[in-house]
Design goal:
The chain is mostly helical. Helices cover about 70% and strands about 0% of the residues. Helix 2 runs antiparallel to helix 3.
Amino acid sequence: MLFNLANILVFLGLALGFLIMTLTIGKILRPNTPQENPDKLKIYECGELPITQAWFNFNPRFYIIAIIFLIFDVEVAFTYPVAVVFRRWVATGGGGIAFIELFIFLAVLVLGLAYVWKKGDLEWIRRIPVEAPEASSQSALSSEQRKAA
């Protein structure tokens, strides 16, 4: 028990020593640039001078698409090991059960994809439903008629 703990402590000590050593070597080797040069204090992004402020809201659509991609990517990673050992399961007589389990798993994925597609989360530009102008003008007329009455 103590030997296993000592292994962990030695590993942590080596990791901490490596971290401190690399940071110290970097501090010694990197050039010291004076801060008086105004060009050094400019904001620099990808070789271009910025046009606007960096603080603006991103469309959450990017994040939703990325999360959906990650979910389906991880699910494919879960199905790959099953495909690798499927032949062995068939040879031992468990292929039918494994196939049904994999089919149910993929059916849940397809249902999830259909739900996300139906909800419209896979579209970059989401259409906002607009009320018909007649309905809004009728409601405006009815409110004016109410005021007159």
